[in-house]
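Complex record, two chains
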Amino acid sequence: MAGTKRRSGKTLEFRDAGTHEGPLLVVEDLHTSFKTGRGTVRAVDGVSFEVQEGKTLGIVGESGSGKTVLSRSIMGLLPPRDVIRSGTVHFAGHELTAMDDAALREVWGAELSMIFQDPMTALNPVKRIGDQICESLKLHLDMDKKEARSTAVELLRSVGIPSPEQRVAWYPFQLSGGMRQRVMIAIALACAPRLVMADEPTTGLDVTVQAQILDLLADLQRERHMAVILVTHDLGVVASRADDIIVMYAGRIVERAPTRTLFHDTKMPYTRALMDSIPRLADPSGARLNAIGGRPPDLINPPQGCRFSPRCPYAQDKCHEAEPPLRTVGSPDHLFACWFPLVDGVSTVPVTVSSGPAPTAADNGQAPAPTGEAEA
Amino acid sequence: MPDDRELLETHDHGRLLANPLPGTAATDEAILATEETTPADDALAKKPFGFLFWFALGFVGLVLLSAVLANVLPLQNPNYQNYTALNQGPSSAHLLGTDDLGRDLLARLVFGSRVSLIVGFVGVLIGLVFGGIAGLVSGYRGGRLDVALNAVSFIILAFPAIVAVIAIVTFWGASLLHITIILGVATIPLMYRVIRASSLSFAQRDFVVAAKTMGATDTRIVLREILPNVIPVTVTFSLITVAGLIVIEGTLAFLGLSVALPTPSWGNLINEGTANNALSTDPYIMLWPALAMFLLLWSINLIGDRLRQRFDIREGLL
């Protein structure tokens, strides 16, 4: 992603810090499983992390790595049946995982909100966008109709929609994809939440609009001092925008580090592979794309040992036998799960031919086929 | 850019107000102008309904109005038997002619429409209220409730409706109230199925989840998010069902199982028109109610269809 220059936030407004101390969001040992006809799908398997007030956390992984389920588990937005969730989520000192729906409704929208992937389906097609923004204003901030209306206009203006006075009365189908995503952001930010979950907020948009939307989000985040969790499959999206990055694979965190560290001192071969799979402008024309061979593992029967070992070019016997713990070497905020971490981006062990990447998908010059099921 | 431009007018919720886009306003406006693909005027300029729609609407309006105002209109008593004017064709005294007892056919036609309309519209209303509520809840909630209601609706629908209705009318007695209730109840599972299917498809959509993440309660989601989406298909289906109930009432009346004579209804007027070889001697008796019923059903169906086209968002986008 083209490097975007961040403007210094002169109008930054700090809200009162609240009563609680420590991180805004604390996720501890979160597990989420789905019961299916074939067996139990462990979509999120023991995930722990923290998000500080006002910071941006990027969650990166392939399709099917569990990142969407993770974000929905944190929100508490899982289907009511055939789901097992364990572990705890603390938000601003309150345990979300212990709250009932009524209590969650107080938090949702007001303190914790979500931006959805597809603005085409996440807006109600038969309601004017102004009304959709007003809903939560009336609900959480007890605004009357007129007040909510004028706030909606200001929100639309703040997300960069021209002549918001007129557009407030438009229907979603009258807006382009980028505009709709701006409206989605306006809805999510309406009540000035402290944490916004953005689940692939730009996947449905074309690249130039993507950058605009992400810059907008970053700007609003700085002005409002809110934390953002940016869920994406694109390392490029989070590279310039996240403070910390979590790399997920097969429902687990495989590497977690401040953004700079992650890119400069990659430990996990999977993270390396993700980075290498980003096409570069400097590549010669006609160069093959660096795809990761094989496909994400079956989450009903995950592979023994390290879950990435079947696809890892450096996998040793130990990798196939024992699962590496999430550990640190040196810097305490750089965690990774690998028996043979890369040193300065280079493996210390030789490439193993036998368990090398499956040639099929890579040779076609295509990304591995996404397995959307586990993400649904 | 000067930063004072960024501070928009303040508000009670000052923190809600943020800066416009980063960068200069001019370039951003330019970008947005290209980003905007659907100008409002284009989107709002809809296909006209066309002459037939307005004709159909006019006819339904005429029938409704005349049925409501039948007592006020300068009509003759529909049951007054004028023995000096039997089996007459249309004339200035009797615009549509008279039947074999000298009753004015126009008056009987207009008063007879009341039965058809009441059965059609009230019946559908009964179905809408009960079937609609059940369908919305069932489609949104899913789970065991949905399975149970679904099964019940299938069981009811498994009975051949006409046979069941005839059987019940025979035992319960034929009256306007009974017919309306029976047909209304028979409509409930139909409405339930259509509304359930529609609300089910919307309950899975992201905007419902989005509403939830904004703190909306289930009731609010059903009423504010799902119901508005379900209304177009419901309106269309209701209109078609009104037409269907009018036909069924006509069938029952034709078989002598609806309101008792001499109270006219379109069905029993058609029946009278076919009795005693009247079809060959005095075809007007049967012609008018049959024509009126045909036109009314055609009009209702056409209106429903055009409304569906207009409200169908997917079609509208293409």
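Note: The radius of gyration of chain B is 27 Å.
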